[in-house]
TrEMBL record:
Record bears the keyword tRNA processing: no
Gene3D superfamilies: GntR ligand-binding domain-like, Winged helix-like DNA-binding domain superfamily/Winged helix DNA-binding domain
Cited InterPro entries: GntR_C (IPR011711), TF_FadR/GntR_C (IPR008920), Tscrpt_reg_HTH_GntR (IPR000524), WH-like_DNA-bd_sf (IPR036388), WH_DNA-bd_sf (IPR036390)
Annotated source species: Pseudonocardia ailaonensis
Domain HTH gntR-type residues, every copy: 23-90
Keywords linked to the UniProt accession: DNA-binding, Transcription, Transcription regulation
Keyword Transcription regulation applies: yes
Identification of the protein by name: GntR family transcriptional regulator
Amino acid sequence: MSSSAQQVPSAPAVLEPLPARSDTLTDLVFTAIRDRIVDASLPPGSRVGEAMLAAQLQVSKTPVREALLRLRHIGLVEPGRTGLCVVAPSAATIQNAFELRSALESASGRHAADRRTIEDAARIRGLATASLAAARAGRVTEFLDLDLAFHLAIAEASGNPTLCRAVEDSVVLTIALRQRDVRVERDLVPDGQEHEEIAAEIARGAADAAAERLTDHLCRIRTLVLAAFPGEPGPCS
């Protein structure tokens, strides 16, 4: 193999210095890098080095290192021949991400149905109703925010902080891959309707039904996303 074939494209200088906010610095760095992966400013296959990112964000290497560790744990960056690089588009990667998320959310739904408080059930149902209203009105950005809040609210109601963090990471991965790698316009009303069905099962304490409905919900979305996947680029070098 020629030396030119082994080269990995370097990421362009795309990150802006971070503003002062109340979030922890590592969270800010994580969000900044994740968002640049999603919008492909950090292209698939590009190297993500601590020194380069720290210089662009005007922070020390420590929060960048911590953010990259989480991004690697989630699956948005992976080891290459010359360090970490942005994960490449792959139908298998999307499939695996949704399978993991489905398993985790099935468990969180089951535990949420068993352990939810009155306040938990009301919050989950309120988010489900609001998401359906946003979908019917065609307010896509609002729906996506409510969709994320709905799934995380179920995880929080599970009463298991470790499971909740795992669900959050899996949701971040599927959303990031879907937004970056798949351009598909679809009817979001069925999502909102399924949210309401899931919320109802959790509210009545039906653990098995809640788990099953969450699994079916994510399986349907996975099928739609994979059907729209454009191809199979090569892996990260």
